[in-house]
Amino acid sequence: MIRQALALLLVMACLWAAPAAAANPRAQRVILVLWHGLTWADAAGLELQGAVAWGLLNTRTGGGESLTAAYLSVGAGARAVGWPGAAAFLSREAAEYSYRLHTGQDPGSYVQPHIALIQEAQAVNYRVELGALGTALAEAGEGLKVLGSSAADDEYHWAALVGMDRWGRIWSGELNGPFTVSDPRYPFGLRTDYTLLAQEALEGTERLVVVDLGDPFRFDRYQRLLLPGQREVAP
To answer: Which of 34, 92, 139, 162 is the most exposed, fewest CB within 10 Å of its CB?
Structure first.
């Protein structure tokens, strides 16, 4: 079920991109899909239409908590140091005053109120600019949107961690909300609405859209509760 839904999302992205690519060799938009735990076997099993190229990104980090370090490194373009809780972004309504107190900056739609601690963790002997990707696009006047969430037993917003600016802000997108629906058949009683997520990803004019699929990470977190045979058949 998950593989079919993910294939739908990727196929829709390819169909959207194909006409633009044929008319203009320069990509007008990029959709970055974050698929936790993706393997070459998963990729080979997807049936995608048209020409497809696969590449492997080996994200070497600067240490610390490994998973947050990997996503921070993508956004920084450098070997970032991970920090537990770095992916716990909050809405402006929930964290506006604490964020202003901590940073002296205006909040975005979503913020990481502990950005100072994450910056402090970058105690390495080379330059690491957290949020370099989001900052560069903002300064160039280009749009960036983040969509989806891996929230389960805690807040995990990997797309926000990749797309934030240097102050830990996200200006456009939707993390919690319509893309994650209640379903007791799935890990943590939650599943991703891939049709709605794909629709939102393909709409708009933002130069970069970062999409967090959600379900793969939740399944990975949930595996320790499953008997070995059940891990192969669980949705």
So the answer is: 139
Query: Mind listing the pLDDT tens digit for each residue in 80-130?
Result: 999 999 999 999 999 999 999 999 999 999 999 999 999 999 999 999 999
In a domain, 134, yes or no: yes
pTM attached to this predicted model: 0.85
Number of structural domains (the chain) is 1
Q: Which long-range contacts (C-beta less than 8 Å, at least 24 apart) are formed by 15-18?
A: 15/49, 15/50, 16/202, 18/50
Would residue 135 count as lying in a domain? yes
Domain hosting residue 106, numbered range: 2-14+57-201+218-232
CA 122, CA 111: separation in Å to the nearest integer? 19
Q: What is the pLDDT of residue 211?
A: 95
Q: Write the pLDDT tens digit of every residue in 189-220.
A: 999 999 999 999 988 889 999 999 999 999 99
Looking at this protein, which amino acid is placed at residue 95? Answer: A
Select from 166, 157, 175 the least CA-distant residue to 68. 157
